[in-house]
């Protein structure tokens, strides 16, 4: 017989406390607004703030869908230079928002997620360029637009994949050319111009990871498809050694080629977001990504939610100190003047 003064032994059945608040609150979940609601908020806030949304070709489909302008780095730089909006929301990565801030010191430039960086831009620093110049006196530094404002400030010319060949062709003969930071784009420029260049050893992790085997696998699956290869891709040199007369295309160049080519199917050898842009601009043709993993996690950090929040709070802002801005403006303006 049990003693009534002794505590009752624990039951083997688990004791489940009755929740004091709904489970959703315990997990701190909130119901997401639907996309139509988000889009309506963005449209309203954009008008209230006299804002423009500029989106890179590698952005998510729904972000490209809400943007005022979708394009490559060069097109976005041009739009940033000519917009009369008071606020620029940059649906892209940090160096692109910096470029917009360099061109528009009087405007508010927003990057909806400040973590949106670029592995290629991170391969080079301003001090690295200064040291390189010191070892190559008289050399002209051409840097890809995928660089920080600090790096642009110590460069002579900027370029994008769309005009790198034209920029290098415009430089005087016999002058050493220092090209940074993308070694795959540099190889393309050397092939196209015949100019010798000293090349920085940088690459984008997304484009570098695209292998010739990825391209060949898609060619086997889609034998009638034409190749659209971006010059930043790690596969480009090996593919070109097999098909020497193959053209490489900047992202804007891909649009033009897809429109004019007789082909109906294309294998898109760059970041997967480009497929969205091509499907929008050339709706009667089929575009196949080279690989599902050719995806830039930095670009995909921009969402409808953080675009809405950035317009609501006018944060986070990207600014460039005036002394750096004034220096960085020169190579950008030279680029915009040439091509
Ligand atoms: S795709 Fe590569 S180059 Fe473009 S933003 Fe992403 S990391 Fe940078």
TrEMBL record:
Any single Pfam family the record assigns to this protein: NadA
Signal peptide range in chain numbering: none
Pathway where it operates: Cofactor biosynthesis; NAD(+) biosynthesis; quinolinate from iminoaspartate: step 1/1
Broadest EC class assigned to this enzyme: transferase
Swiss-Prot/TrEMBL cofactor(s): [4Fe-4S] cluster
GO MF annotation: an example: 4 iron, 4 sulfur cluster binding
Cofactor binding, per record: Binds 1 [4Fe-4S] cluster per subunit.
One of the GO BP terms on file: 'de novo' NAD+ biosynthetic process from L-aspartate
Keywords from the UniProt entry: 4Fe-4S, Cytoplasm, Iron, Iron-sulfur, Metal-binding, Pyridine nucleotide biosynthesis, Transferase
UniProt keyword Iron, yes or no: yes
EC number: 2.5.1.72
Cellular component terms per the entry's GO annotation: cytoplasm
Binding sites annotated in the UniProt record for iminosuccinate: 56, 73, 144-146, 161, 230-232, 251
Name listed for the protein in its UniProt record: Quinolinate synthase
Organism: Deinococcus arboris
Name of encoding gene: nadA
């Amino acid at each position: 017989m049990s003693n009534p003064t002794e505590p009752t032994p624990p039951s083997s059945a688990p004791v489940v406390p009755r929740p004091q608040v709904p489970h959703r609150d315990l997990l701190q979940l909130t119901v997401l607004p639907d996309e139509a609601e988000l889009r309506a908020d963005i449209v309203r806030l954009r008008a209230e703030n006299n804002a423009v949304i500029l989106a890179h070709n590698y952005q998510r489909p729904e972000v490209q869908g809400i943007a005022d302008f979708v394009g490559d780095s060069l097109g976005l730089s041009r739009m940033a230079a000519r917009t009369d909006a008071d606020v620029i929301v940059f649906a892209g990565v940090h160096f692109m928002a910096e470029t917009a801030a360099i061109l528009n010191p009087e405007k508010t430039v927003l990057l909806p997620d400040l973590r949106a960086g670029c592995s290629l831009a991170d391969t080079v620093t301003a001090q690295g360029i200064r040291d390189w110049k010191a070892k190559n006196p008289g050399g002209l530094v051409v840097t890809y637009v995928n660089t920080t404002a600090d790096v642009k400030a110590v460069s002579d010319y900027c370029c994008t994949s769309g005009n790198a060949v034209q920029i290098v062709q415009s430089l005087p003969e016999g002058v050493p050319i220092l090209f940074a930071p993308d070694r795959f784009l540099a190889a393309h420029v050397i092939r196209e111009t015949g100019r010798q260049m000293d090349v920085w050893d940088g690459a984008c992790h997304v484009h570098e990871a695209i292998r010739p085997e990825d391209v060949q696998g898609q060619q086997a699956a889609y034998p009638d498809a034409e190749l659209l290869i971006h010059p930043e891709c790690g596969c480009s040199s090996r593919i070109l050694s097999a098909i020497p007369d193959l053209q490489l295309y900047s992202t804007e160049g891909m649009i033009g080629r897809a429109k004019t080519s007789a082909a109906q199917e294309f294998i898109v050898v760059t970041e997967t977001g480009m497929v969205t842009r091509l499907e929008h601009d050339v709706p009667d043709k089929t575009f196949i990504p080279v690989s599902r993993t050719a995806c830039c996690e930095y670009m995909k950090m921009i969402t409808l939610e953080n675009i809405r929040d950035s317009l609501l709070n006018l944060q986070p802002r990207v600014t460039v100190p005036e002394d750096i801005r004034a220096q960085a403006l020169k190579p950008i303006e030279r680029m915009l003047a040439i091509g």
